Amino acid sequence: MPSNKPLIYIAAVRRSGSTLLASLLSQLPKTLVFPEPHFASGGYRIDRRFIDALSAHGLDLLKIKRAWHKGDKTGAFAYFKETTWPLLQSAGMQVGIKEIVNCGWAKYVDLGVPMKFILLGRDPRDIYISLEARLKAEPAKLARAWPDGFHPQALAAYLEQQATIQSEIASTQETMQVRYEDLCTETALIEDVRNFAESEIETPETALFFEQPHRPKGHSRQPEHRPAGQVSRDRVARWRRQDQSRQQMLAQLLELCPKYQKLWRYE
User: Across the strands, what pairs with 116?
Assistant: First the structure.
């Protein structure tokens, strides 16, 4: 029987807890939030771990994914709409999408099904600290995500772009705004999010957590970029623990993203 639950769309920014939230809203066979599948921006990205998990419940996404890669790789969202979406709907599964670049969000509205949008934000100063640490540890990501280099102006431009999109979503759709800091410190918030999303998952312990991809030998994650499921209070307001010159630089970052500040109200 097709699911009567709304499609969940998590419109996040980088390093705002979106992977954690997606995993907390995922529990097979009831619901699954795809992390950054890029369907609406021309890609078809489904992690093999999700394919294997769904296969155990009789859903063969590997065949669909292989057919996509053998084709001309155009019309990704149309392909998702014609193949993947009907399969998941027929299984009675609540489906979610999580993205950190949200320019294609309106395509999901065109599916014509009930939707719930969750917006995620985080203090820009802590986003900068977290991204800086991660990019130092994984420099290959720097060239892909920040081809012109990572610096406060580049991050501010990204946040302003996403804030414009998030504001449009908030003004036109049924939306819940969630701040990373609250996600880390308010234990009741997850239940509020689940209620908003009309999720059937009852407790965090039953959520579907996936381990992060294998890291090179000798590489250890620093607190600034722990994987999903490991948020804690020590990741909130990290900027306050920086030296004075760093705090001044990070304060300038706030001034560079007025749209983001107006939406999320960090000071």
Answer: 8
Residue 33 pairs in a beta bridge with 96
CA separation for the pair 127, 15 (Å, rounded): 6
Is the Cβ–Cβ distance between 200 and 30 less than 8 Å? yes
pLDDT tens for 192-213 read 999 999 998 765 544 444 333 3
**Kindly report the CA angle at 255 between 252 and 260, in degrees rounded to 5?**
125
Please say if the pLDDT value at position 224 is more than 70: no
CB 184 within 8 A of CB 20: no
Could you tell me which residues come within 8 angstroms of residue 28 by beta carbon, excluding any fewer than 6 positions away? 53, 54, 56, 57, 93, 208
Dist. CA 32–CA 197, nearest whole Å: 12
Name beta bridge partners: 11. 99, 119
Angle at 26 between CA 21 and CA 27, to 5 degrees: 145
- Domains in the chain, ordered, with CATH? 7-208+222-264 (3.40.50.300)
The answer, as to whether pTM is greater than 0.85, is yes
CB contact set of 232 (below 8 Å; sequence gap of 6+): 184
Tell the residue number behind the tokens 């990070």, with chain if given: 250
Task: Please tell me the distance from the alpha carbon of residue 223 to that of residue 252, in angstroms, as a whole number.
Answer: 24
Helices (H), 25-151: 48-55, 61-70, 76-79, 85-90, 105-109, 124-137, 139-145
Q: Which stretch of DSSP H or E encloses residue 154?
A: helix 152-172
Q: Strand pairing partners for 10?
A: 98, 118
Q: What's the sign of the alpha-carbon dihedral 138, 143, 146, 152?
A: positive
Q: Which tokens in the block code for residue 160?
A: 């302003």
